[in-house]
Amino acid sequence: MKFTIDPVSNPELKQRLQYKIDYKTKPVGALGILETIALQIGMIQNTEQPTLQHPTIIVFAGDHGIATQGEVNPYPQQVTAQMVYNFIQEGAAINVFCKQHRIHLEIVDAGVNHDFKNATPLIDAKIAHGTHNYQEQPAMSMEQCEEAIGKGSDRITKIKNTSNIVGFGEMGIGNTAAASLLMAYYTGIPIVECVGAGTGLNTDGITRKQHILSEVYHQYQPQSAIEALATFGGFEIAMLVGAILKSAELKMTILVDGFIVTAAVLAASAIDKNVLAYCIFAHTSGEQGHQKMLDFLGVSPILTLGMRLGEGTGAAMAYPIVASAVAFLNTMASFEDAGVTNAEV
């Protein structure tokens, strides 16, 4: 698929927004990262009066062939399907946080190794019953990868008329392994430095995971960003890539969750670097490779809470801060409005 993503560039608007921010009744820079967020969203929406409409988080779920071996994941593969049921029964952390912050939540079956039999409100976008084991062959064909990117894009098309800010989450036993491989490919960081504990491996487990993924990584030589995604990724990660690219094309604000979603951003930005200007990075994950991803991208996250749950939970926690940034920009008085004497510069 082809995406046309405009750069976020309007020097005159940027100057006006910065003036508006600086002349609120506060010292310059006193609201810290809120000021950065306000400026970014104003630039994305090309207005001095940005709004946040119908915030949505989409969680894509998919299974990974390597997880059937149990060598890189402490939880068995069937936990993916079990957690999807937990999502649609509103029992997971992401359900709690979305309900608390009034965020619309969608759960998408991208490729779980289970038949849900018309479970609602689950969205069926299944490509296959999990990817192949990349120890033996590429995780998916190029055709499957492109189909997944397309289906991720389609989810954004369906919400574009109501929502202008979207966060992303994922569920898939084994997907930190896939994200580590993608991280190594897109950043050039040695694979052993990209591999962490995932859902809770001990030291021996991490060492084993590093060894296995090193062998996998050096088994292939992908020639493009898309081929790497097909070789190492999961259906849920490929759908994330499509959704991120489409969101940027539609000039939506993107809330990026943790390690796996950031791996999808790495892939999306390798396809079109303009995507990054539309992304707000919610938090620093406790997964050890995440900070290295953020450093590579040159971005600063909003929160550092030691979270490493996935599901989009970091995005949900960051949303109220983003909302506060827009609120102060639109409703806080300026020195002139309030009749308050400004500092002499």
Describe the 3D structure:
With 345 residues, this protein is α/β, with parallel strands linked by helices. It has 2 domains: 11-51 and 328-338, Nicotinate-nucleotide-dimethylbenzimidazole phosphoribosyltransferase (CobT), small domain (5,6-Dimethylbenzimidazole Phosphoribosyltransferase, Chain: A, domain 1, Orthogonal Bundle); 56-321, Nicotinate-nucleotide-dimethylbenzimidazole phosphoribosyltransferase (CobT), large domain (Rossmann fold, 3-Layer(aba) Sandwich), CATH 3.40.50.10210. The protein is built from 14 helices and 6 strands. Strands 3-2-1-4-5-6 form a 6-stranded parallel sheet, sandwiched between helices.
Characteristics of this structure?
345 residues, alpha/beta, 5,6-Dimethylbenzimidazole Phosphoribosyltransferase, Chain: A, domain 1, Rossmann fold, 2 domains, six-stranded parallel β-sheet, 14 helices, globular
Helix content: 40-55%
Q: Report the principal-axis shape.
A: globular
N→C terminal distance: 52 Å
Number of helices: 14
Briefly summarize what is shown.
This protein has 345 residues and is an alpha/beta fold. 46% of the residues lie in helices and 9% in strands. It contains 14 helices and six strands.
